[in-house]
Amino acid sequence: MKKYTITALVANKSGVLTRVSGLFARRGFNIESLCVCTTEDEALSRMTIVLNGDEYTLAQMTKQLDKLIDVKKIAPAPEDDSVYRELLLVKVAAPAEKRSEIIEIKEVYKAKIVDLSPETLILELTGEPNKLDGFIRVIEPYGILEMARTGVTALSRGASCLNDRLDYNEQI
User: Fold this and answer.
1) In angstroms, rounded to a whole number, what is the distance separating the alpha carbons of residues 131 and 120?
2) Which NCBIfam families match (predicted)?
């Protein structure tokens, strides 16, 4: 199984997320990561969906998504032609005797301390998903108390844009 990333422009209205996620559920595909937000055009939202599967799975889900009326444009986001980013917040046990070690690790990964207490640190890290995975593995022995990840977001490299050739005269 391989991870595939799909980006889609969808109508920014109630129920669209439910229809898209329901499409995956009905076919038995698990969404590994989902990031949704409005775009520069408030009538549209951008979805970045990461799923595990093979090329057939990717082709099937792309075809099925394309059939939904609220999906305006869909495209794969291949690793070699896209920039991926994700945000991680992690609360780590940080007693005084271990705090300097944790801070050294934070500096290697270029993470930020966004909150601290006498017993804990909350660290923020942005980067490619594998960088975040590596950071988690290194920091885990210190005691991860809680963490949250945003999910992957992606843009294609170069001048091409997902909204190229989008028909703005069409009813959104």
Assistant:
1) 22
2) acolac_sm, PRK11895.1
Q: Residue 163 belongs to what H/E stretch?
A: none
Q: What is the dihedral of CA 60, 49, 32, 131, to 10 degrees?
A: 130
The CA distance from 134 to 131, in Å, is: 5
Maximum distance among all Cα pairs of the chain, rounded to whole angstroms: 63
Name which of 114, 113, 88 is nearest 102 in CA terms. Answer: 113
Q: Is 94 exposed, middle or buried (0-12, 13-18, 19+ CB in 10 A)?
A: buried
Token pair 């703005």 is found at 168
What pLDDT, on a 0 to 100 scale, did the predictor assign at position 162?
84
Q: What is the DSSP letter of 30?
A: P
Domains and CATH numbers, the chain: 2-77 (3.30.70.260), 83-149 (3.30.70.1150)
Distance CA 104, CA 134 (A): 15
Q: Mean pLDDT in runs of 10 for the chain (172 residues)?
A: 92 94 90 93 94 89 92 91 95 96 98 97 97 98 97 90 66 52
Identify the pLDDT of residue 1. 84
How many angstroms separate the CA atoms of 128 and 135, rounded?
11
Q: Which helix (H) or strand (E) holds 139?
A: helix 129-139
